[in-house]
Amino acid sequence: MQSTSSTMAEPLAPPPLHQYRRVFADPVVAAFIAGGVAGAVSRTVVSPLERLKILFQIQSVGRNEYKMSVFKALGKMWREEGMRGFMAGNGTNCIRIVPYSAVQFGAYNFYKRFFETSPGTGLDALQRLMCGACAGMTSVTFTYPLDIVRTRLSIQSASFEGLGTRDTRQKLPGMWSLMKIMYKNEGGILALYRGIIPTVAGVAPYVGLNFMAYESMRGFFTPEGEKNPSPIGKLAAGATSGAFAQTCTYPFDVLRRRFQINTMPGMGFKYNSIWDALSSILRQEGIAGLYKGIVPNLLKVAPSMAASWLSFEMTRDMIINFGNYGEPEEDEQKYI
């Protein structure tokens, strides 16, 4: 009897290490981790162009502070603010993009399970578009407050006349301080979600088109007789798919930026609704107003998406190989 109770009192042995490793072989887990890495890498690479795109987007009619070529605008940013200007808002952007990208890639692989007839069978173009759209909406909902704060951080030190003269020695509010100011002075939690409707309207088709186009381009750049493209092929597929998706949905991005700063004084516009914003931009700035900043954006998108997809696939494969150590090797394409 004593030996029985003694045996029952013994602690259970921990599960073998391979059971923990197998968690990382799950497509959703691997995509979630790799997506976070991909987001941080891609946004840091193109931070100056990302900020310049925002400055172009928010410049309403009659404003000339950044009415110049991309390279002259980058020079102006460097002269006035130096490296800090190039990286303004990037810390917040990375804090935002890591969970955003992680949720997006993880959610895409999660939603795939509802369309696949069996694991790894793959999706057609329409199914990839739908899964990507759902993944985009999911990621935006989780991370939008960080996006709107990043936009404010990107422009608060820029030389826009209506924002007043900036003392370069003045300490500007950081991410959390700015978030508290917005919450307190601009309407509570709703202030942190201002502009989310045009954002979701633009992100859903963008992410869907991006995933759909990448798969098509991935097949195009795969050499005959091979299962997967080379790293250069993946870079080319990512750049092409990103540029295509962004061009199709760019006006939504302009609307998103305008609404994110709609309550800031001195910007030259106050919109009451999406329709009011759209009609005002078309009336005052023409169709070109919906594509302000698209040149630095396309210069940004190509290297950004190329770096994102390549770093995603490399990181994901490393994680899956770690989880599948000692198991038969699986085709990486089923995890996209």
Automatic annotation (TrEMBL):
Protein name as catalogued: Mitochondrial thiamine pyrophosphate carrier 1
Keywords: Calcium, Membrane, Metal-binding, Mitochondrion, Mitochondrion inner membrane, Repeat, Transmembrane, Transmembrane helix, Transport
Organism field: Rhizodiscina lignyota
InterPro entries reported in the protein's UniProt record: MCP (IPR002067), MCP_dom_sf (IPR023395), MCP_transmembrane (IPR018108)
GO terms of molecular function: metal ion binding
Acetylation keyword on record: no
The family this protein is said to belong to: Belongs to the mitochondrial carrier (TC 2.A.29) family.
Cellular compartment(s): Mitochondrion inner membrane
Entry superkingdom: Eukaryota
Keyword Transcription recorded: no
Ranges of the Solcar repeats in the UniProt entry: 26-114, 123-220, 229-318
